[in-house]
């Protein structure tokens, strides 16, 4: 009966209220753009008097919503926030200033804001004003929840999730190229949730040619559809491809990463006339993925779900650009003629294999979902 459903969590502890703030933040994943997900709870004399979450970039921060709900009762309260309150004038005035003005007594923070514009200044402002500040409460959970924001704000590159769905022997299609379907419904539902939680989804042009996917989010209740990015070095994309048409809501964008030398200016013009953004990056035969990712980050894309196929997934792995792997495994075996899920030339020695840590194994219907973090040192 605790906020997180965890029976081991002490009621009326800092963790109890931080878990509630984290829950609110967790439910807004995918909707805050380049901003973090943040939740806040105001507690006074043993009662929750305010709650809030940051819902959308440009709108109020979590603490502001929570303080607004608390009104006069914020004076003398303890405020829980999943991220250090900000100290800068951004789209909104500093939350630390607002907390000081509200007369709160104590602020409990999960972790310091890695945004260089803040990084400790918010906490310092609060302490200077005589407010007791505690940090590090449920820090690991809070960092995990904002891992995309942390990568984006500290490196200027998007967080890259690699998703693949393969047979137990690591194949994404049979020897004839048939791939419908490797995994079952439950796994595919999780993929749509992943799409909702990423700013963009990326595939290679071969996947567009082979499968003509629409790459939108389709869930029992409406989800957010990511921007669609196609890696297409020679602009081979078919004009009638579904990814080039506006989605049902008509609002998702499509971007094509290509080469400077794609040699097809007429096709480029045609695509641009359809409203497709073309980013030339890389000379010669291959798209320079690193350069492309930098440009995408500058355009305000903090996270990308790479959904294949094998060649693209392989390139991202070979170039060490993956932050997280989400691998669905179907209990099927199709033999050596099948298509590899990760098409890269691997190392000579087993010792040099790409190794995943923080491994989590979750059943998804009849399939398994294995989540891990590659270590690139
Ligand atoms: C908070 N509470 O709820 C959020 C914070 O563009 P702005 O003005 O919204 O500022 C965004 C930055 O503010 C973001 O990069 C992060 O450092 C912080 N986000 N801070 O105190 C919140 N969303
Ligand atoms: Zn703020």
UniProtKB/TrEMBL annotation:
Binds 1 zinc ion. Its EC number is 3.5.4.26, 1.1.1.193. Pathway: Cofactor biosynthesis; riboflavin biosynthesis; 5-amino-6-(D-ribitylamino)uracil from GTP: step 2/4; Cofactor biosynthesis; riboflavin biosynthesis; 5-amino-6-(D-ribitylamino)uracil from GTP: step 3/4. Residues 12-134 form the CMP/dCMP-type deaminase domain. In the C-terminal section; belongs to the HTP reductase family. In the N-terminal section; belongs to the cytidine and deoxycytidylate deaminase family. Its cofactor is Zn(2+). Keywords: Hydrolase, Metal-binding, Multifunctional enzyme, NADP, Oxidoreductase, Riboflavin biosynthesis, Zinc. It catalyses: 2,5-diamino-6-hydroxy-4-(5-phosphoribosylamino)-pyrimidine + H2O + H(+) = 5-amino-6-(5-phospho-D-ribosylamino)uracil + NH4(+); 5-amino-6-(5-phospho-D-ribitylamino)uracil + NADP(+) = 5-amino-6-(5-phospho-D-ribosylamino)uracil + NADPH + H(+). Converts 2,5-diamino-6-(ribosylamino)-4(3h)-pyrimidinone 5'-phosphate into 5-amino-6-(ribosylamino)-2,4(1h,3h)-pyrimidinedione 5'-phosphate. Transmembrane segments: none annotated. It comes from Paenibacillus physcomitrellae. The gene is ribD. This is Riboflavin biosynthesis protein RibD.
């Amino acid at each position: 009966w605790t906020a997180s459903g965890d029976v081991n969590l002490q009621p009326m502890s800092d963790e109890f209220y931080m878990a509630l703030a984290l829950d609110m933040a967790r439910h807004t994943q995918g909707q805050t753009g380049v901003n973090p997900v943040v939740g806040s709870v105001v507690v006074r004399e043993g009662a929750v008097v305010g709650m809030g979450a940051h819902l959308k970039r440009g709108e109020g921060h979590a603490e502001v919503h929570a303080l607004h709900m608390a009104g006069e009762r914020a004076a003398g309260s303890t405020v829980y926030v999943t991220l250090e309150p900000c100290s800068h004038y951004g789209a909104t005035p500093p939350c630390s200033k607002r907390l000081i003005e509200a007369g709160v007594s104590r602020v409990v923070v999960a972790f310091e804001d890695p945004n260089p514009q803040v990084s400790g200044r918010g906490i310092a402002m609060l302490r200077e004003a005589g407010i007791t500040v505690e940090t590090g409460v449920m820090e690991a959970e809070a960092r995990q929840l904002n891992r995309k924001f942390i990568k984006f704000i500290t490196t200027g590159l998007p967080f890259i999730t690699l998703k693949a769905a393969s047979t137990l022997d690591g194949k994404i299609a049979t020897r004839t190229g048939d791939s419908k379907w490797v995994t079952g419904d439950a796994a595919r539902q999780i993929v749509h949730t992943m799409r909702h939680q990423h700013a963009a989804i990326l595939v290679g042009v071969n996947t567009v040619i082979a499968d003509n996917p629409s790459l939108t989010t389709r869930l029992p209740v409406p989800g957010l559809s990511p921007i669609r990015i196609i890696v297409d070095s020679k602009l081979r994309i078919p004009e009638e491809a579904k990814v080039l048409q506006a989605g049902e809501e008509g609002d998702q964008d499509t971007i094509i990463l290509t080469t400077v030398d794609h040699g097809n200016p007429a096709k480029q013009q045609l695509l641009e006339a359809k409203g497709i953004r073309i980013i030339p990056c890389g000379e010669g035969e291959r798209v320079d993925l690193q350069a492309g990712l930098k440009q995408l980050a500058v355009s305000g894309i903090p996270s990308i779900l790479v959904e294949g196929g094998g060649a693209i997934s392989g390139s991202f792995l070979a170039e060490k650009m993956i932050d997280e792997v989400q691998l669905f495994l179907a209990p099927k075996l199709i033999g050596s003629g099948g298509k590899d899920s990760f098409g890269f030339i691997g190392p000579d020695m087993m010792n040099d294999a790409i190794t995943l840590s923080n491994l989590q194994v979750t059943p998804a219907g009849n399939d398994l979902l294995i989540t891990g973090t590659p270590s690139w040192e």
